[in-house]
Amino acid sequence: MNSNSTIVILAVLVILVLWLVSIYNRLVRLRNRFKNAFAQIDVQLKRRYDLIPNIVETAKGYMKHERETLDAVINARNQAASAGQAAAANPGDPEAMRGLMGAEAALTGTMGRLFALAEAYPDLKANQNMMQVSEGLTSTENKVAFSRQAYNDAVMTYNTACETFPSVLVAARFGFRQASLFEVEEAAERAAPKVSFT
Asked: Is residue 184 part of a domain?
């Protein structure tokens, strides 16, 4: 083998290594992008979890006979917060995302029951604190929806990169796994809970 052949082979190997490194780095960037997008969801979910006890505390004074519903809201909130922490520790993990989606659906259902019951209490609907917290919750719900869309877009881009040639070869070799979308599974969750007390 002459020196020209050796140089050509070395050049091809260097180009191949640089090409593989660029694919690997792109997958890392895409993975970090969807993790960051989930962090934005996490921020909004935490804000929502912080607002829920305020709503329940305000409602307690008016809804003395609805203790079971109030307790169910707090329990669902705590379960959703716990599921959110598990998902935040490993965004995109299918099991953690299923747990979060289920907990969020349960929370949405109990919040819907609370707001339906609150309609029967005119003094509660007129309470200034309840109106302010409800407005904050409505705003947060909208931010969660936007953040979820951004997360799902980032996951779709990442998953597509993991599945397409030639990056599928690098993804399989270096443990880049498909990430799970944050999808709405329950029909009840598709409709945002009504939080208006006007």
From this structure: yes
Residue 159 exposure: Cα atoms within 13 Å on the Cβ side: 13
CATH code for position 153: 1.20.1440.20
Within-domain flag for 162: yes
Q: What is the pLDDT of residues 57-105, one digit of tens each?
A: 888 888 877 888 899 999 999 999 999 999 999 998 999 999 999 999 9
- Would you say residue 19 lies in a domain? no
Structural domain that includes position 74:
30-190
Q: Which two tokens stand for residue 16?
A: 């191949």
Residues 1-21: pLDDT tens digits? 688 899 999 999 999 999 999
Name the token pair of 17: 């290594």
Residue 16 resides in a domain = no
Angle 180-142-157 from CA coordinates, rounded to 5°: 30
pLDDT interval class at 188 (50, 70, 90): very low
b/e burial code for range 86-125 (CB count within 10 A of at least 16 → b): ebbeebbbeebbebbbebbbbbbbbbbbbbebbeebeebb
How many domains, the chain?
1
d(CA 54, CA 24): 46
